């Protein structure tokens, strides 16, 4: 309600968590009352449990208003006698996960003995969702958050990745994708690297979907293209470079470094309380798109921002090394003049480079 989550509902800041006055007992009580309400609603329908009404499309009806009458709900409301729920235990082909086979056959030996790094070359499709999560899970079973040494496991992929590509990625795992990815890239990642290089380079080309880096705490994400809306929402530690975003990037961001080499869309930095962002703004549009409630934008072509300039330049060089980005290379080759097109965005109460 204050745009800062200061009551502890969704914050990782220990000082803000101290302001949360709730207790475990109150949370339990809330869900008990919620369950009681559900039971009351069910009883008015003549049923005792949710299981009894799963699949009961005959209990639904179309609202009698002008808008609802514009649509045909026949197939949604059609009920097959004797079939109320899913009748097949599996969900082919969507339960097929190539990563599980790779873990079983090839990856476990390197996880158990990190002195023997491994590199896997394979294709990927949008049927392969949450690629990288199973690998990270196997690592977490043995090493917890410590992960593996950098570069112990490397995936070199080609194709179109499904949702949550690189979710919860662990330290020591690098994923290189020659192609594009769907929503939630790097969700919850705590380490490792995700490098996405679409086969084409060009203005407004999308390399990843919406809500990338949601809740991420570490690692690196480099995308040689634009990404979708809500980029780096609740990012608290990941370093990321992309070439443009949709609306609402860096929303509720509490840490990490984000570099955007192009347009950001509207509502940049809503609720942003930590971290830094460097925005390339050669069109002079960024300030109008920035949510200025908690953040400020500063130029970094002055004498007292040398450390920030050097850091940005180093980061762009690393980005070019991993992605071969033409846009970033052009900026580096003309860095002395191009630095005037950058804004450094930070929370108003933060004074130093983290």
Automatic annotation (TrEMBL):
A Pfam family that the UniProt record links to this protein: GXGXG
Source taxon at top rank: Eukaryota
Xref: InterPro entries: Aldolase_TIM, Glu_synth_asu_C, Glu_synth_asu_C_sf, Glu_synthdom, Glutamate_Synthase
Glutamate synthase domain mapped to chain residues: 1-47
Domain Glutamate synthase alpha subunit C-terminal positions: 123-306
SUPFAM superfamilies for this protein: Alpha subunit of glutamate synthase, C-terminal domain, FMN-linked oxidoreductases
Pathway(s) it belongs to: Nitrogen metabolism; Energy metabolism; nitrogen metabolism
PANTHER family (UniProt xref): GLUTAMATE SYNTHASE [NADPH] SMALL CHAIN
Assigned protein family: Belongs to the glutamate synthase family.
Protein name: Glutamate synthase [NADPH] large chain
């Amino acid at each position: 309600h204050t745009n800062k989550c200061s009551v502890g509902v969704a914050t990782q800041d220990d000082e803000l968590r101290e302001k949360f006055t709730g207790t475990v007992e109150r949370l339990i009580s809330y869900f008990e009352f919620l369950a009681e309400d559900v039971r009351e609603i069910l009883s008015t329908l003549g049923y005792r449990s949710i299981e009894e009404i799963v699949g009961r499309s005959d209990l639904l009806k179309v609202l009698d208003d002008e808008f609802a009458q514009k649509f045909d709900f026949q197939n949604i409301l059609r009920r097959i006698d004797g079939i109320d729920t899913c009748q097949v235990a599996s969900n082919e082909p969507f339960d097929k996960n190539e990563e599980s086979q790779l873990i079983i056959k090839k990856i476990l030996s390197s996880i158990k003995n990190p002195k023997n790094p491994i590199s896997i070359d394979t294709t990927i499709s949008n049927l392969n969702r949450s690629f990288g999560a199973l690998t990270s899970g196997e690592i977490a079973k043995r090493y917890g958050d410590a992960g593996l040494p950098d570069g112990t496991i490397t995936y070199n992929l080609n194709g179109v990745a499904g949702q949550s590509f690189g979710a919860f990625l662990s330290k020591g795992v690098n994923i290189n994708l020659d192609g594009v990815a769907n929503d939630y890239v790097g969700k919850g990642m705590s380490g490792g690297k995700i490098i996405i290089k679409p086969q084409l380079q060009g203005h407004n080309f999308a390399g990843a979907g919406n809500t990338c880096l949601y809740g991420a705490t570490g690692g690196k994400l480099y995308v040689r293209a634009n990404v979708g809306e809500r980029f780096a929402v609740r990012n608290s530690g990941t370093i990321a470079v992309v070439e443009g975003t949709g609306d609402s990037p860096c929303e509720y961001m509490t840490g990490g470094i984000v570099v955007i080499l192009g347009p950001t869309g509207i509502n940049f930095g809503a609720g942003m309380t930590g971290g830094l962002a460097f925005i390339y703004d050669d069109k002079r549009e960024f300030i109008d798109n920035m949510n200025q409630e908690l953040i400020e934008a500063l130029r970094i072509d002055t004498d007292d921002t040398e450390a920030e300039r050097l850091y940005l330049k180093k980061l762009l060089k690393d980005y070019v090394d991993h992605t071969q980005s033409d846009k970033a290379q052009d900026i580096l080759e003309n860095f002395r003049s191009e630095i005037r097109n950058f804004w450094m965005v930070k929370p108003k109460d933060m004074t130093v480079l983290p």
